[in-house]
Design brief:
Helix content: 55-70%
Number of domains: 1
Number of helices: 9
Distance between the termini: 83 Å
Strand content: under 5%
Largest sheet: none
């Protein structure tokens, strides 16, 4: 009886050892399955790091911890038209190229301080009227920033821990004075 258990356990261990390398090597495969956007793992990581740079972890969870990066991809894939999706992909490539040119390394390899400094320059250029039509980089940055903030303010954490969310009619207060109501 013990020999059968030992053979079964050995078969499980060998089977696991054969499958394990294929589970660990999904380097070029993105985490998010999108219908319209085609992004690779490096591009996904750029957006993840950008969202984390916009909303970093402090005493509250950051964008990466709340999964806001996945929200950004899903919203752009599902809710934006083809023109804006093309602008997103082109802007993503421009953003990665600009980061590599300015930082001397990819945005993913940069330190948090370097990322923050680079994003601040992009933010200043996005707000400046002169740079609005130069590249798709500003459109990409604005899309990611808008969706990151929107995803954070509509997240379960924000709605339950940061602000107390009540459904529309609110609470019934039977002791509310009528005189205060008439004054409003």
């Amino acid at each position: 009886m013990n020999r059968r258990i030992a053979i079964r356990n050995m078969a499980l261990i060998l089977g696991s050892a054969a499958i394990l390398p294929s589970c660990l090597t999904d380097k070029g495969k993105p985490v998010v399955q999108l219908k319209k956007l085609k992004v690779d793992a490096d591009q996904e990581k750029v957006v993840n790091n950008l969202a984390e740079t916009i909303l970093p972890k402090t005493d509250t969870p950051g964008a990466a911890e709340l999964g806001i990066n996945l929200f950004v991809f899903k919203m752009i894939d599902d809710c934006y038209d083809k023109e804006h999706q093309a602008d997103f992909i082109k802007g993503l490539c421009d953003f990665a190229d600009a980061a590599k040119k300015q930082l001397g390394k990819s945005f993913n390899e940069a330190t948090v301080a370097e990322r923050t400094a680079f994003v601040n320059t992009v933010d200043i250029n996005a707000k400046n009227e002169k740079y609005k039509d130069v590249t798709k980089l500003t459109a990409f940055y604005k899309m990611v920033k808008d969706q990151t903030v929107f995803g954070y303010t509509t997240s379960k954490y924000f709605m339950t821990k940061q602000i107390v969310y009540e459904l529309v009619p609110g609470r019934y207060n039977a002791y509310f004075p009528v005189k205060k109501l008439a004054a409003v």
